[in-house]
Amino acid sequence: MHIAALLLSECSSRGAPTDAYLAFLPHLLTEALWAKTANVPAALVVIESFLRVHPQLVMAQHGVTLMGHYQRLIALKSLDHYGFALANAMLPHVDHITGMANPLHVLLNNMFRRVQQSKTPKFAKAFVVFFFRFCVVMGAPAVANVLEAIQAGMFRMIIEKVIGPEMEKLADATTHVEKRICAIGLAEMMESGIGVLGDLFGPLSEAGVKLCEGAVVHLSHANEEDEQASMYSEEGEFNAAYCKLQNAAPAEVLRPEITNWKKYFSDVVLKRIGGSQPAMLACLPEHTLVTLGVYSCTPPFNSQATQNLLMTVHHANEHPRLARFEG
């Protein structure tokens, strides 16, 4: 299956016809194939390739089947990382699903069920990264609208009760790619939702800095547990049918135009939000402001800019009425 994914990607990159590969898709989506745990990671790589090349056709004709596989995977503790991988692949194209009402609601409600009933550290981390990916791919206002359509007040509730607390635990448990996704998604969420999240500005900003500053987990170590799990069936039987082919899964870069993601996060906090509402920065401790200042300034570090920023914050602290955010 990995070979099929590689061939499909190569044909697409060269502009060669890829329609001949579509006949393989129904066989790839059979329940019998997905029931064998060792087949799942390879099948996911092929699905990701099809979604890059023929997203509308795949989702229109097979979206309901894919959602069925997703629902099964995300519900199982041993396979939920594959559920998130499938959700990531479907997310940009989920609106093309036919024959299912509110597919985004279905996608999210299955995650919320796990959050409420059987959350694990592995699931919590994947959920936080997925949430911020959602903000990057669909836009934070769209995320807020979807959550509010599911239940009034859910946007703030998810951020306050789940995203914020879980971010505190991820500083030293995320890869470089995951940190980048979280920083960009958090920045966009904070900027667009500041009217709702005003009193959470301080904790979210601090959590974002801690995440940026935390140790980077190497991808091989992050995936070791998942790869070990893929070697066994749900019944615990060893299955060596899956052999990873690295070149069949090209790396995806979200928002490639953002070359310095720490600066992007800092600019949103200090300039876009803090610039228009300086009193908001008064709730941030000095070490957080200094770190953000370092991110925001291009080398060599402009210490005078940070000093000016700290003076602005001290001025806000001296005037309590300014330090109160009126959203």
Give a nutshell description of this structure.
Helices cover 65% and strands 0% of the residues. It is an all-alpha fold.
What do you see in this structure?
This protein has helices at residues 2-14, 25-28, 31-35, 40-53, 55-75, 80-90, 103-117, 121-138, 140-150, 154-167, 176-192, 194-197, 201-213, 219-222, 224-230, 261-276, 286-296, 303-318. With 327 residues, the protein is mainly α. It has 18 helices and no strands. It is globular and about 65 Å long. The longest helix is centred in the N-terminal third of the chain and has 21 residues, at 55-75. The model is unreliable at 320-327 (pLDDT under 50). The N and C termini lie far apart (53 Å).
Summarize this structure as a short list of keywords or feature phrases.
0% strand, mainly alpha, 327 residues
